[in-house]
């Protein structure tokens, strides 16, 4: 067995010594069978959360109502979840209450796709009652049990299916895609935060174009915030070679394809319940992208935008223009690096200086003067030195 499973084997052993079953489950087992790198392992057990807490001295309750306890063992942390079923599905959403069970089979049965319903014991033996391994071999995403039933239980699974297409490049199995195309309207019932989390994984996936195409083909896009009736823009977006873009650049490209105006941009991103910081980043990239498509950077824009935004905008500029010239990106970034100042706080002059020099009280004129000085420093019309700035300002005023 390989890391990170290997270090977790003693955790499984400890649970077994206490008289319970424990297995590796979920994405880690799937990715292991795909030879993909694995960040962390999930463990499922027949022990209840309280029983898990009795076995390990150091634990954190991270989702005890869903049966998940975080166990700290030899300086590593492991998410350990009690075998469970989700019997009472209501309103096409995942249930609020879960029932703990003692059987691994039942736990695997409630999982979404066969590739995600494989368990592995501490010796590396696979328990695979739904033929997840052959699905992986055939590169197929197939629900455990009847697709229509499983999507009705929890409509988010439809979005998960498409985000796995993006991450893995698999196809949806026949019945699964049929059920999906029929049941997509149920996604209206799903919390936007849950949709966003899957959508962002979709935007980052290696096979994002294939996944976006599937969103269009199945009509799923209509049940995502701000995308209703936006089939044409989504199709137009597909002409770009966007596989290398980062997540926020993908959001900005989406805004570009939708040809949203400034106010609508903010609403669109808010409707997706994106965190404020992310909204600001995406807006900034989008704004400078539009500017850049019309003109070259000014020194002042380079300065305000900053390194990361410049890079994002230049990469997007090339994606939209269909060119690929790293020299151009390097050239703008170099110009940025050579700016005499990178932030307002680096200016060797303050509002107080100006008030003293002009013997005037504060007011709008102050800000105006500071911006004028800032621009002149950037354009190297004046050196960033307190007395040089004073001299220069007095000269300007005499003119
Ligand atoms: P990733 O590598 O992106 O984390 P993952 O398969 O581990 O992929 P998670 O969202 O972390 O996905 O979920 C862990 C496991 O829990 C899944 O592999 C699946 O077995 C199960 N699961 C998650 N969400 C659902 C759901 N909505 N319905 C049924 N089973 C689910
Ligand atoms: Mg996971």
From TrEMBL:
Highest taxon in the source lineage: Bacteria
Keywords: ATP-binding, Hydrolase, Magnesium, Metal-binding, Nucleotide-binding, Nucleotidyltransferase, RNA repair, RNA-binding, Transferase, tRNA processing
Cofactor requirements of the protein: Mg(2+)
Amino acids binding Mg(2+): 40, 42
Every CCA-adding enzyme C-terminal domain range: 247-392
One Pfam family it belongs to: PolyA_pol_RNAbd
MF terms (GO), sorted A to Z: CCA tRNA nucleotidyltransferase activity; hydrolase activity
Residue ranges constituting the Poly A polymerase head domain according to the UniProt record: 22-141
E.C. number(s) listed in UniProt: 2.7.7.72
Residues annotated as binding CTP: 27, 30, 111, 154, 157, 160, 163
Gene3D superfamilies reported for this sequence: 1.10.110.30, 1.10.246.80, 1.20.58.560, Beta Polymerase, domain 2
Subunit structure: Homodimer.
Extra information: A single active site specifically recognizes both ATP and CTP and is responsible for their addition.
Family statement: Belongs to the tRNA nucleotidyltransferase/poly(A) polymerase family. Bacterial CCA-adding enzyme type 3 subfamily.
Free-text function comment from the UniProt entry: Catalyzes the addition and repair of the essential 3'-terminal CCA sequence in tRNAs without using a nucleic acid template. Adds these three nucleotides in the order of C, C, and A to the tRNA nucleotide-73, using CTP and ATP as substrates and producing inorganic pyrophosphate. tRNA 3'-terminal CCA addition is required both for tRNA processing and repair. Also involved in tRNA surveillance by mediating tandem CCA addition to generate a CCACCA at the 3' terminus of unstable tRNAs. While stable tRNAs receive only 3'-terminal CCA, unstable tRNAs are marked with CCACCA and rapidly degraded.
HAMAP family: CCA_bact_type3 (MF_01263)
Protein's name according to its UniProt entry: CCA-adding enzyme
């Amino acid at each position: 067995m390989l890391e990170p499973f290997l270090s977790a084997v003693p955790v499984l052993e400890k649970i077994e010594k206490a008289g319970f079953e424990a297995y590796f489950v979920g994405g880690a087992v799937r990715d292991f069978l795909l030879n993909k790198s694995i960040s962390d392992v999930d463990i499922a057990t027949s022990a209840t959360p309280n029983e898990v807490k009795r076995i390990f001295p150091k634990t954190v309750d991270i989702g005890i109502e869903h049966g998940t306890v975080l166990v700290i063992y030899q300086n590593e942390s492991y998410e350990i979840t009690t075998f469970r079923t989700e019997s009472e599905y209501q309103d096409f959403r995942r249930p609020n209450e879960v029932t703990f069970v003692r059987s691994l089979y039942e736990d695997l049965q409630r999982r979404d796709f066969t590739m995600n319903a494989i368990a592995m014991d501490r010796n590396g033996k696979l328990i695979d009652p739904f033929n997840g391994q052959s699905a992986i071999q055939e590169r197929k995403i197939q629900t455990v049990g009847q697709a229509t039933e499983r999507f009705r239980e929890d409509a988010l699974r439809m979005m998960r299916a498409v985000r796995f297409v993006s991450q893995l490049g698999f196809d949806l199995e026949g019945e699964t895609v049929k059920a999906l195309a029929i049941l997509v309207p149920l996604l209206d019932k799903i919390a936007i935060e849950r949709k966003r989390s899957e959508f962002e994984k979709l935007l980052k996936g290696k096979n994002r174009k294939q996944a976006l195409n599937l969103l269009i083909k199945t009509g799923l896009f209509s049940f995502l915030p701000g995308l209703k009736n936006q089939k044409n823009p989504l199709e137009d977006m597909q002409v770009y070679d966007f596989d290398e873009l980062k997540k926020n650049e993908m959001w900005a490209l989406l805004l570009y394809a939708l040809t949203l105006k400034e106010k609508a941009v903010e609403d669109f991103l808010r409707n997706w319940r994106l965190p404020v910081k992310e909204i600001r980043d995406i807006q900034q990239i989008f704004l400078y992208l539009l500017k850049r498509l019309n003109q070259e950077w000014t020194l002042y824009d380079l300065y305000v935008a900053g390194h990361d935004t410049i890079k994002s905008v230049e990469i997007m500029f090339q994606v939209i223009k269909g060119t690929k010239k790293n020299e151009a990106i390097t050239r703008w970034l170099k110009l940025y690096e050579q700016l005499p100042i990178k932030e307002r706080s680096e200016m060797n002059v303050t509002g107080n200086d100006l008030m003293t020099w002009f013997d005037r009280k504060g007011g709008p004129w102050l800000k105006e003067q500071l911006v004028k000085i800032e621009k002149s420093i950037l354009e190297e019309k004046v050196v960033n030195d307190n007395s040089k700035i004073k001299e220069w300002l007095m000269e300007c005023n005499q003119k």
